[in-house]
Design a protein that fits this description.
The protein is of the alpha+beta class and 388 residues long. Helix content is 56%, strand content 11%. The protein is built from eleven helices and seven strands. The strands form two sheets. A four-stranded antiparallel β-sheet has the order 2-3-7-6, with no helix packed on it. The protein has a three-stranded mixed β-sheet with strand order 1-4-5, covered by helices on one side. A hairpin with a 2-residue loop joins strand 2 and strand 3. The longest helix is centred in the last third of the chain and has 34 residues. It starts with a helix and ends in a 10-residue tail after the last helix.
């Protein structure tokens, strides 16, 4: 048996155990909010944090097809923890997009050695955080909002503006002096993503902690980073849609036999179930296509062309529209299948819609629809940005 087959089987076993643990109290934790410290530690113990790190650095060497399959399955059970897991791998990939080979090697070996969990303080739309030269190093002063996964993280990827208003990206330990993580995330959905704010008071950043080769969007390959970030949102949306549909089906099947017969024989309920099934399967197919497209671009590395990058962005945008609409629609219409009794607070089945509604507002679909319209009518690819 090859080493790769052994790795795949070990990953599958670890994933099934983790999913069962997350599913056992997902509804209860959704109500509680806050940092899911125990569940984060379960992810640490699963070995899945190093899955996307190449074998040469001691990681699992998984490709993005495998990573996204895990994100989707996790999102169907617990979209908050899927969000944290996915953003962890996005932060690791950020090193490969924006950093030097030495920076990448050092950070990845550290992640494997110390089983680091990565957090996010990027949010390029929040311009309050500033990076200024201070002697032979730099200092960060200000704050960032929407810092998913910063709580209980070991490393942070941070974006800030310098004195020339240029965006800079740094990689620093979360425990460095001057960093304060605030427990101020109180939104109606994605309640355990720790997406609150982080403040920085004279936080030191060394020269070798700045990712400047080629830096943000500095090449067609570096410009794949926004595609990956968007694809993570897409995977969570379609996972939510699948989770909502599977939960509705399970709810009906667990009813007393007369209830199952009544609902299963109702033509209007069957019609709705068929519509939702087709919608979820259609979104999943588009997501599969986008993931495969991204994987091909990732494999191309620095040889990728602007046109190839643009085609990936279109595939991701198409999947985003379909998956977001599926998550919102199925999260609401699932109750048309289950009936009024399914709306109890104890069941907690409203979390699928709340999580989808909160997450799909990350950046409005209207922008993606405009990009798709420009491509459809004019053949022009989206201009690379942190959201396209």
């Amino acid at each position: 048996m090859s080493d790769r087959i052994v790795e795949i089987r070990a990953t599958a076993v670890a994933l099934e155990s983790l999913l069962a643990a997350l599913a056992s109290n997902a509804s209860q934790r959704d109500k509680q909010g806050g940092t899911a410290k125990h569940e984060r530690d379960l992810i640490r113990d699963s070995g899945l944090l190093t899955l996307s790190i190449p074998h040469e650095f001691g990681g699992g060497g998984a490709d993005w097809v495998e990573i996204f399959a895990i994100i989707r399955r996790m999102a169907a059970v617990d979209s908050s923890l899927a969000h944290l897991f996915a953003f962890h791998h996005l932060m690791i990939a950020t090193l490969q997009f924006f950093g030097t080979a030495e920076q990448t090697r050092h950070a990845m070996e550290k992640t494997v050695r110390e089983n680091c969990f990565w957090g996010n303080a990027v949010n390029p739309k929040d311009s309050r955080l500033r990076l200024r030269r201070h002697g032979e190093s730099y200092r960060l002063d200000g704050a960032k909002s929407f810092c998913s996964g910063a709580s209980d993280s070991d490393m942070l990827v941070v974006s800030a503006l310098d004195d020339l208003e240029k965006l800079k990206i740094a990689v620093i330990p979360t425990g460095r002096g001057g960093i304060r993580i605030h427990d101020d995330w109180d939104n109606m959905g994605q309640r355990q993503t720790d997406s609150g704010s982080v403040s920085f008071d004279a936080v030191e950043v060394r020269e070798d902690e700045l990712l400047v080769s080629p830096g943000p969007l500095g090449s067609p390959f570096a410009a794949l980073r926004p595609c990956l970030a968007q694809l993570i949102l897409v995977a969570i949306y379609v996972g939510l849609a699948r989770g909502a549909l599977d939960s509705a089906i399970a709810y009906v099947r667990e009813l007393p036999s007369d209830g199952v017969a009544r609902i299963g024989g109702d033509p209007f309920t069957l019609h709705t179930a068929g519509e939702l099934w087709a919608q979820v399967c259609g979104a999943e197919a588009l997501v599969d296509r986008a993931v495969q497209s991204f994987q091909r671009g990732w494999t191309r590395g620095d040889a990728i062309t602007p046109q190839e990058r643009g085609a990936i962005a279109i595939d991701v945008a198409t999947a985003k529209v379909a998956s977001a609409r599926a998550a919102l629609d199925v999260g609401s219409r699932m109750f048309d299948i289950m009936g009024a009794r399914a709306t109890t607070a104890r069941a907690g089945l409203d979390r699928f819609w709340r999580n989808a509604r909160t997450h799909t507002l990350h950046d409005p679909l209207d922008h993606k629809l405009k990009e798709l319209g420009v491509f459809a009518l004019n053949g022009a690819y989206p201009t690379p940005s942190f959201y396209s």
